[in-house]
Amino acid sequence: MTEQAGDVEQGILWRQEHLAPLPIPTGQPASDLMNLIWRKNEVYLDIGSFPMGAGWLTLHCLTFILAIASIWTAWSATSVADAPWWVDFVIPAAGGGILIPLWYFYIKQWRKPLASPIRFNRQRREVCITRPDGSYWFVPWERVHAIAPSVTNLGTYGASKHGSLVLWFPLEGQENEPYSESKEGWVLAVNPGGGISSMAQWECIRSFMEVGPDAVPESSHTGRSEQVAQHGYLGVWWMLIVQLYDELKAREYGAAFSTLAGLTIFGMPWITVLLTRKLAHIPDLTSPEAVEWSKPLPLDQWTKRSAELEQAIARREAELRAQ
């Protein structure tokens, strides 16, 4: 059996929701939580994943904690008579032995070229998938599978829920073959949180294809690049410092603490600058066939929805209006 949008599988601590096919409305507003949107125009939407921001925040936080612990140890040792000299180097050496290899592998991964985006053409109702070697193929939009699995973890401090959004595309030459969970395909997986968050992220793609580009938020990379271009790299720091001052002045201490943590513990200005530089030159599709495929079509040549999808969307929209 081929799962379709609306089908749900679940167990005691897990749940798997199928969002497509058929790509019917989820009822959630489109929200690009994972910054997947790289490029958008009237014809196509390019999405790509460069999920290294969380790694930076983690490593920067650990490095910051190590630095503070090292300074505190060195300062404490000065108040202890006859403390051996090597005490000051225990924490830096132990922490550095762990963090230096992690930073090395992180930087190595960061320096790899960006992969080509996945392009959704709303006029042809097709998706262009590009392999790292440059080969590509086209997948019918209504053959794309979107799945939102989530799992609940039980721990000492209670339950926590984790989830992802998985996009599955049939391989070249297999576009019209039946889908099964064991069938190999081209997969893109991101972690917006599962449930409503995954639906909101999926809506960015679904709404572009079924509603139009105005229903989808603009790429955050464009806005960030314009901000850095306008204020400069040091201006990113200055803007957060001014924001911290304004929050303290307004006695918004919770927001001020969050801004301060971003400035110090997590190094948010650095990740803004680094992401801007990394995504300044997003790769494009360059093969002649893909370039021709990406050109706009006269309105009378646009591919239409299937009758099955048309009926499914009508039923779903009626359900949403009745809620």
TrEMBL record:
Residues spanning the membrane: 54-73, 85-106, 257-275
Keywords assigned by UniProt, alphabetized: Membrane, Transmembrane, Transmembrane helix
Name by which UniProt lists this protein: Uncharacterized protein
Annotated source species: Pseudomonas benzenivorans
